[in-house]
């Protein structure tokens, strides 16, 4: 994953949302973090693609909450739409259901005529496309959030500590059934860094680790924030100096 492919989220609303979440230490916001539409291909109103997309999203809405993951497709030949939705590993059925419900309606509002789109929340992720992306690492739709606060003390050691925690979590997540792991590392007495990594569950164990490791590689080694969030079409990585996830 080349640095040039990483898009910096400079969306103002997004940054404000993030700031508020950090300020409150909230971990279960229902507000979407970000959405992204594939603009190259559009469908027309009442077309077969639209019918298939409605069917797909309804199926995802019904099928995801019990296990936290569903992937499905609807339609035939050039009107086929492929989609998946994934709730974060620790999210219970009710919260997963609430998140997917919101995602289903907001993705349609956010990407009204696009043949592909994706939307991220803290609790869940949803993606659909007219091409079959299952099992393939999406290393194009990767977004790194701006730094809110820089590390001032010993940034090199902090970088080493953060990346060693995240690489360890990457190995753990790739072997976990939900392709998800959280953990913490005490870097100084009473100073801890918390990490979370996750993949969409269509990925193999091997591809999950490859996706997370490449995403960790995006973190700049000199201008390191005290917290950072990178979201992607196949995996997410986040660390903070406070516990931002439920056990
Ligand atoms: C699809 O729609 C977007 C937004 O309306 C537009 O910018 C884009 O050119 C369209 N794509 C094609 C292939 O028509
Ligand atoms: C999709 O395929 C159908 C027949 O299979 C054809 O009539 C239609 O024009 C195609 N649509 C596009 C956008 O290629
Ligand atoms: C579910 O959401 C509620 C309200 O946002 C929150 O208090 C609770 O901790 C969440 N539970 C889990 C398991 O995420
Ligand atoms: C963090 O440091 C970088 C490089 O020194 C600087 O460009 C950026 O504005 C700083 N960000 C904050 C939030 O202070
Ligand atoms: C943090 O990184 C420094 C520099 O590499 C290292 O000496 C220290 O042992 C690390 N701390 C932990 C808890 O891994
Ligand atoms: C940080 O990254 C730069 C450019 O990628 C590299 O030249 C430098 O050696 C790295 N520094 C450390 C401490 O890893």
Order of helices and strands: EHEHEEHEEEHEEHEE
- Unreliable stretches, pLDDT < 50, 5 or more residues? 1-5, 8-29
Count of distinct structural domains: 2
Which architecture of the largest domain per CATH?
Answer: 2-Layer Sandwich
Beta content comes to 25-35%
Largest sheet composition: 6 strands, mixed
Molecular shape: elongated
Q: How many strands in all?
A: 11
| Fourth-tier CATH superfamily name of the largest domain | Gnk2 domain, C-X8-C-X2-C motif
Structural class: alpha+beta
Question: Helical percent range?
Answer: 25-40%
CATH topology call of the largest domain: Killer Toxin P4, Chain A
Hetero ligands: 2-acetamido-2-deoxy-beta-D-glucopyranose
Q: What's the tally of helices?
A: 5
Radius of gyration: 18 Å
* Name of the top-level CATH class of the largest domain: Alpha Beta
Query: Alpha-carbon distance between the termini?
Result: 31 Å
Give the strand order, joined by hyphens, for the main sheet. Answer: 1-7-10-11-9-8
Average residue pLDDT: 88
Q: Care to describe what's here?
A:
The protein is α+β, with helices and mostly antiparallel strands and 247 residues long. It has two domains: 3-134, Gnk2 domain, C-X8-C-X2-C motif (Killer Toxin P4, Chain A, 2-Layer Sandwich), CATH 3.30.430; 144-240, 2-Layer Sandwich (Killer Toxin P4, Chain A). Helices cover 34% and strands 28% of the residues. The protein contains five helices and eleven strands; from the N terminus they run βαβαββαβββαββαββ. The protein has helices at residues 12-24, 48-67, 93-110, 155-175, 205-216, and strands at residues 7-8, 34-42, 69-74, 81-87, 114-120, 124-129, 142-144, 180-188, 191-199, 228-232, 235-240. It has a six-stranded mixed beta sheet, with helices on one face. β8 (180-188) and β9 form a beta hairpin. α2 (48-67) runs antiparallel to α3 (93-110). The longest helix is centred in the last third of the chain and has 21 residues, at 155-175. Bound molecules: 2-acetamido-2-deoxy-beta-D-glucopyranose (6 copies). The site of one 2-acetamido-2-deoxy-beta-D-glucopyranose has 5 residues, from loops. One 2-acetamido-2-deoxy-beta-D-glucopyranose is lined by residues 77-78.
